[in-house]
Amino acid sequence: MARKVILTGAGISAESGLPTFRDPKGLWARFDPMDLATPEAFARDPAKVQAFYNDRRAAARAAQPNPAHLALAQLQRARPDEVLLVTQNVDDLHERAGSTDALHVHGRLDEARCDSCAHRWPAPARMAAGDRCPACASGLARPAVVWFGEVPEHLDKVAEACSRCDLFVVIGSSGTVWPVAGLVDIAARAGAQTVEINLDPSVRAGAFDRVLAGPASVRVPEWVAQVLAGRFKL
Ligand code: OAD
User: Fold this and answer.
1) CATH T-level topology, domain 1-18+65-106+152-234
2) Minimum CA distance residue for ligand 1 atom 4
3) Which pick of 131, 132, 155, 222 has the fewest CB atoms within 10 Å?
4) Which residues pair with residue 84 across a beta bridge?
C-alpha cells in the first residue's frame, strides 16, 4: 500500500507549454467551461465540444514532459510501491516521463469512451460529432474526460489511499475543484504531512503543513532530490 500520495494539476504541465485553467491566460479565462466541459454542452453542441478537445489533444501530443514530470518518475522508480501518483491532468506527460499507474481522476485525452455503453478505446487524433462507438455503434463517442457535474474517476481508491498515507503532496493545482480539492483534509485527518508545491500559495494553502512556492520545473526536482537524499523534513 502506497504511503505517499502525490496529486498533480495543470500547473505541472504549464512549463511544457500547456495552458492551465485559471491563470490570467488560462483556458477558462478564454472559454466558458459551461459551453465546453459539461454533459449539457456536449448534448447541445457536440461538434464544438469535440473541436475544443481535438485542439487540446493535439497540443498535448506536441508537448514534452518537463523536469517536474521527470523527477516524479525518478521518485517512483527509486521507491517502487511507495508512491501513488494521482493527476487531474488529461494529458499523458506523466506516462511519457516514465511514470506508471498514474490515476487520472479527470480522465484522459488519449482515450475515447461511449456515453451509451461506457466502452473505452484509444482516441483518434480528431474526433467528430456523431462518431460511432466500436462496441455498441451508438453515435455517442466522446473524449474520456470528466466534465463538470460528473463524478471523478478512481475517487474511492484515491480517498482510501489518502486516509492511510503519511505524506500528501499537491503540485500545480489551484485547489478550487471539488471533491479533489478536499483530499488534503482526508490526508491531514490521517496524520499525514501535507505539502503544496505551486507557483504561488493556492486558496487551499492554509490546509497544508508546508508550502513550497515557485515553478514546478524547479521546485519538484529540488524536493525529489531532498527526499531521495533523506533530507526532506517538515
Ligand atoms: P488550475 O488552472 O485551476 O490551477 C493551476 C495552478 O497551477 C494555479 O494555482 C497556478 O498558480 C499553478 N501554476 C501555474 N504555473 C505553474 C508552474 N509553472 N509551476 C507550478 N505551479 C504553477 O488547474 P487545476 O487545479 O489542475 O477539470 O484545475 C483543476 C480542474 O479544473 C481541471 O482538472 C479541470 C479544470 O476545470 C475539468 O475540466 C473537469
Assistant:
1) Rossmann fold (3.40.50)
2) 174
3) 132
4) 5
**pLDDT tens digits, residue range 142-185?**
999 999 999 999 999 999 999 999 999 999 999 999 999 999 99
> Which is the catalytic residue, given 69, 106, 119, 154?
106
Q: Over the stretch 96-138, which tens digit does the pLDDT of each residue have?
A: 999 989 999 999 999 999 999 999 999 999 999 999 999 999 9
**Does the annotation mark 119 as catalytic?**
no
Distance from Cα 8 to the centre of ligand 1, integer Å: 9
Nearest alpha-carbon partner for 1 in 210, 233, 162, 204: 162
Query: What is the rounded distance in angstroms from the CA atom of residue 34 to the CA atom of residue 167?
Result: 35
What topology is assigned to 21-62+108-145 in CATH?
A: SIR2/SIRT2 'Small Domain' (3.30.1600)
